[in-house]
Amino acid sequence: MSKNDTEIVSALRAALSERIGKERCDLWFGHGTRLEFRDQTWFVLARDQFLLDRLRRSFRAELEDLCEQLAGVEVRVEFQLDPEADSSGVAPRRARRQAHQPVSSARDSAARHPTGKAAANGRLPSVLDDFVVGDTNRIAFVGAQTVADRPGRVTPLLLYGPAGTGKTHLLEGIATAARRERGLRRVVMLSSEQFTSSFLEALRGSGLPSFRRKYRDVELLLIDDLQFFTGKSATIVELLHTVDSLSREGRQLVFAADRSPSELGSLGTDLIGRISCGLVCGIEPADEATRLGIARRMAARLGSTVSDEVLRLIAAQVTGDARLIAGAINRLVASSEALARPIDCGLAETALGDFFRMTRRVVQLPDIESAVCDVFGIDVKTLQSGRKSKVLSQPRMLAMWLARKYTRAAFVEIGQYFGRRSHSTVISAQKQVESWVADGRKIQMGYGDCDIRDAIRRVETRLGTARAATG
After folding, report:
1. 36 pLDDT more than 80
2. Is-contact 458 376, C-beta < 8 A?
3. 288-359: what CATH class?
4. What does pTM read for this prediction?
5. Helix axes 22-29 and 167-180, enclosed angle (nearest 10)
6. Contact residues for 441 (Cβ-Cβ < 8 A; gap 6+)
7. CATH number of the structural domain 128-282
8. What is the C-alpha to C-alpha distance for residues 193 and 203, in angstroms, rounded to an integer?
9. How far apart are CA 144 and CA 100, in angstroms?
């Protein structure tokens, strides 16, 4: 297209965005759709037949009207399959640069995708079909599917679990399904930090009425990293009113956090009560079978031939989240190309040896102390104090037991670290915790009693070990 034609396309995109809304315009005229103007004809070029049919059926009238306004005369609008799209349905970069001008700025896109990921790094939002389901995340996935299929039926939905377990993937998947399959136009997904920044900006000058219209006049609101609202009392109050407003209208709310509602007490009983009344789904770190599924999915996405034997090696060695598995496969493929060697276990062990060592978490005594204090809701360093109250003695004994399980520290070193206690005290603590596990004992936490196995699991999740309690 000529420079003039490119400017006309940009003008049409701007007018279309104004007419049907930026969200809807981005969804249907973003990735996979090109607009061209040549020979006094508008061409709407779609990557596949499904998209082409939807565009023709849903937007022909708006496009014909807008095109006539821009041209000043009656023009034709033709809907065609994109001849430059590759086998995956994606137009080449050259064509996208020429004809696929952005409908809105990166800042606008970040406001709609609160984590900023879809806009900032240029990738498409995640979809539920790409989520690898296993025993550790199955309930959360079903909850996400339920919300995506019937928004408003179960609200709010809270997904919680440690970093790297797929919470943001599920949030993006829900948002994508709501837009594409349910036809919802007012969908907003953002992080707690972005909600807070937007609220503070409204207080400073942009105005609370505008802020409230933006977040309360939606059909679906998704907020990631809920735990970061801690300490922001004014923002929490505003969020509480937003939750109440949307709940009264039967609108769908979805939240994600790195811990359970019982561990989010700092957000206030009112907000936690509202969130807990819906559907609460926990997600555990991926087990080996799920990691293998993730590795297979990522290898297929890269179009690389990686044997199952190699993928099983990666799944066994890389016990972190999906990002680390992706990093391992990317490095392996790059090494294969650079060395002109086939991808086999020999190459994997050579190319990924240091990667495997790096991702194998080395647990230190301060790590255990921090994780235990975080789970039990007590101040760091209190385990090193001389206080012997039950609220401290039980987590201290658990910390000593975990220190024996995950570190090479001697009894004397552990005793010295946790308050200059003798090695016999550490031995006694180890036996005590083992008896708790064997008996299924409950121990005291800040919000009430908790099963010892559950407490150990939570601490191990914080440590990144994700091993089951013994016994």
Report:
1. yes
2. no
3. mainly alpha
4. 0.59
5. 90
6. 435, 451, 452
7. 3.40.50.300
8. 15
9. 32
